[in-house]
Design brief:
- The protein has helices at about 10-20, 30-40, 80-85, 105-115, 155-170, 180-200, 205-210, 215-230, 240-250, 260-265, 270-285, 290-310, and strands at about 1-5, 25-30, 45, 50-55, 55-60, 70-75, 95-100, 120-130, 135-150, 175.
- The chain is an alpha/beta fold.
- The strands form two sheets. It has a five-stranded parallel β-sheet. Strands 3, 4, 8, 9 and 10 form a five-stranded mixed β-sheet that branches.
- Helix 6 (about 180-200) packs antiparallel against helix 8, helix 6 (about 180-200) crosses helix 12 and helix 11 packs antiparallel against helix 12.
- The radius of gyration is 19 Å and the shape is globular.
């Protein structure tokens, strides 16, 4: 199995680095400066689950060739079009794409570019960041991927993903090959959209929101709209998933926030439309009361407008 990882950032670098540790033939498609840094110092992971400094192979967009069985994308949604262009030269006749983006809207864009037979489903579970020195800092005790074939995928898709899962098992990274990956993706989308909408709207953690008089009520309104949207799409969250989601969204004293809030507070780009905006559209189409999602999306759009003129803070 030959795997191409687009980028070597906080997510792609982490999961690609662990895959390289497992002995898989991994290449990172990066920009020249990142390639130079990786050539000098290797890919550095700092984690309570095991530090690593891994020599890795890199390739540039202008020199990449169609030599790969699998291309893994972990970019932010606002970089999706650039990522699609970047991997064009890597796409051989049987190359499959495993996107690890949040949300659902990217699937249609990837299918438009590369056809549904190539586009797998996937999502990941990790908290990590890229430090100023280029090292990847793992911020949590969890590290996992859920992936699976989708309707219309090539017949060899499941075998390839099983090989991927077996490789990750060698380095203690949980990689589940799902029987219904779009269900898994929707269940995470429900959690993430609720969390991002509320923590960004309130500029606060879950615990801080719940300490407010109407915090729990508003959190439940946001979650209810997301659940309705998932149900209308044919992917109502399971009882187990809802229990897990509620345990995170209604934990008193929790410091839990969406990474989108961290991006917003750093005056960075945010996946407002791809996460909150897309969930809002689904919720409205389902006839749900989506006023909290609408307020959150309005807040994020206003932030983006301020950021565009250099006034974000």
């Amino acid at each position: 199995m030959k795997v191409l990882i687009l980028g070597a950032g906080a997510v792609g670098g982490y999961f690609g680095g662990r895959l390289a540790q497992a002995g898989v033939d991994v290449t990172f498609l990066v920009r020249p400066r990142r390639a130079q840094k990786l050539a000098q110092a290797g890919l550095v992971i700092k984690s309570t689950l095991g530090d690593a400094q891994i020599p890795v192979h890199t390739v540039l967009q202008e020199t990449v060739r169609p030599d790969y069985d699998l291309a893994i994308l972990s970019c932010k949604a606002y970089d999706l079009d650039a990522s699609i262009a970047s991997i064009g030269g890597a796409m051989g006749p049987n190359t499959l794409i495993l996107p690890l983006l949040n949300g659902m809207a990217h699937l249609a864009r990837l299918e438009q570019a590369y056809a549904s037979a190539r586009v797998l489903g996937g999502t990941c579970y990790i908290a990590s960041t890229l430090d100023a020195d280029g090292s990847i800092r793992h911020l949590s005790q969890f590290q996992g991927i859920s992936c699976g074939p989708r309707a219309g995928n090539h017949a060899h898709a499941r075998d390839l993903l099983q090989e991927l899962a077996q490789a990750y098992a060698r380095v203690s990274v949980e990689c589940k090959v799902s029987a219904d990956i779009e269900q898994d993706m929707w269940e995470k989308f429900v959690l993430l959209a609720s969390l991002a909408a509320m923590t960004c709207l309130m500029r606060a953690s879950v615990g801080e929101i719940l300490s407010a008089n109407d915090g729990e009520v508003l959190m439940r309104e946001a979650l209810s709209a997301c659940i309705a949207a998932a149900g209308a799409a044919g992917h109502a969250p399971s009882a187990e998933s809802l229990q897990r989601t509620e345990s995170m969204l209604f934990a008193r004293g929790s410091a839990f926030t969406a990474s989108m809030l961290r991006d917003l507070e750093a005056a960075g780009r945010v996946e407002a439309d791809h996460i909150v905006g897309d969930m809002l559209r689904h919720a409205r189409a389902a006839g749900a009361d989506a006023r909290v999602l609408a307020a959150a999306y309005c807040h994020l759009q206003a932030y983006e407008a301020r950021r565009a003129r250099g006034a974000a803070a």
